[in-house]
Amino acid sequence: MSKKIIIGIVIVLVIVGVYFLISSSSNKVVVNNEEVATTTLKVEDTTPVNKEMTVIGKSVEGRDINAYHFGTGADELLLVGGIHGGYEWNTALVAYKAMDYLKANPNLIPTNLKVTVIPVLNPDGLNKTVGTTTGNFTSADVVASKEVAGRFNANTVDLNRNFDCDWQTTGTWQNKSVSGGTAAFSEPESQALKAYVETNTPRAVVVYYSAAGGVYSSSCHNGVSAETKTLTSTYAKASGYPASEEFDFYAITGDMVNWLAKENIPAISVLLTNHESTEWSKNQAGLDALLKYLVK
Known about the structure:
This protein is an alpha/beta fold. It has helices spanning about 5-45, 90-105, 125-130, 190-200, 225-240, 255-260, 280-295; strands at about 50-60, 65-70, 75-80, 115-120, 170-175, 175-180, 205-210, 215, 245, 265-270. The protein has 2 domains: about 1-45; about 50-295, 3-Layer(aba) Sandwich (Aminopeptidase), CATH 3.40.630.10.
């Protein structure tokens, strides 16, 4: 083989090698860019305070009970929806509305405050009525025949009769008897809420129900605390709902907000006027008023 041919082959090999080196480097850069973009997106989805989520427990059927956190302050305002699942599905929607509002307006959250939203405490009941546990449903998705059954968890327990204030095995709902469970906190959903509250000790709690149209204080044979009275009047005045110190339509045993009062945590019940509307303008005004008040 002549010297010229050898030199030509070497030149070709060098050119081919340089080509593959450049191509490989270029692909590597592209891959790295994609990895960086993916990593960045992942960080944006999980680390900012207005998108942080924790699973606080599981339902009877194994569905996650999620808590979403907004803000980084030491004090905590806890909002809870969906305790009566699909029967009060609009309370889950108002909680999801609150989440959207806080995501879009993080500057409204005082620096001393963190807002936590548990939009669906009874995911099995909600799923039974609307086929999902997320906020991506409307009234058109509600199966009317399953509304009442969707009030209970998968053990047919009324979760708002399963907390430790005047708990009884059989509770009352309107003129009906309902199960309060085998013991206070017998259900995984109420256990999850209890554990979260005892671990975090929120400064104030708002629980959404329907339907009576009003803001109600909490107590468990210890009187309505001054702070609970203030929360009640603050939310009611801003929202336009009437304020009451007691839900006295009928006797309630094992009630969540009354258990919170027993634990010396100020808590109010916000009852939407009907079972369909979130009445968001009212509840936004009430939430805004609480955020301003809790700066103190």
